[in-house]
Design a protein that fits this description.
58% of the residues lie in helices and 18% in strands. The chain has seven helices and five strands, in the order H-H-H-H-H-E-E-E-E-E-H-H.
Length: 217
Amino acid sequence: MKIRSFILAVLLLILFQTSAWADQPINDLKTPVEKIMTLLKASKSQNKEKQEAIRIKVMQIIRDTFDFHEISRRTIARHWKDFSAQQKDEFADIFAEFLGSSYYEKIRDSYTVEDIIYDSEEIVSDNKALVKTRIPRETGDIPIYYRMMLKNGKWKVYDVIIEKISLVKNYRTQFRSILRKESPEQLIERLKKKIEDRKTDQEPGRKNKEKEKPDTQ
């Protein structure tokens, strides 16, 4: 009888945990996104100094929501072993700035909180999940899927799939081509230059005419 009671208690615990996890990935994504949207709405009526302060806050939320070290490792793939421990940390930090800025600019210029529809989530394994969202548009909805991983009790994004194109796979192809000819340090310098070029292009009176690709010559 005691054994049956114990088994029942374990089963109930598992069911409770499964139920609790069911909403966690989508909430761990939705909550920071809504915070970002609230900050962006507030920034529209602020001066440049306050807008910059808001941008810094948004970038911090992005860094907390995405696992950029995992994204970097998956993006660099087999060449990751060629990076020193210091280069891995530096690359993850620079790549976070590069991708975070791109994400920030797109949602700042294009999206509102009403735009994002959270369709579903799928628990793929004990520590992985897929959250499906979409952006409604007159010409057709834009599907955006987030691959998420559970780390230290929190679900974090490690890949984004936009219209069936994986962010990780897209940059993996670009970086693989670069690393065939250049060193990890040279790739890091490329990304630093892209970030500086972007800042320059955003200065008053200038227009950004080049595509955001780290392998641009």
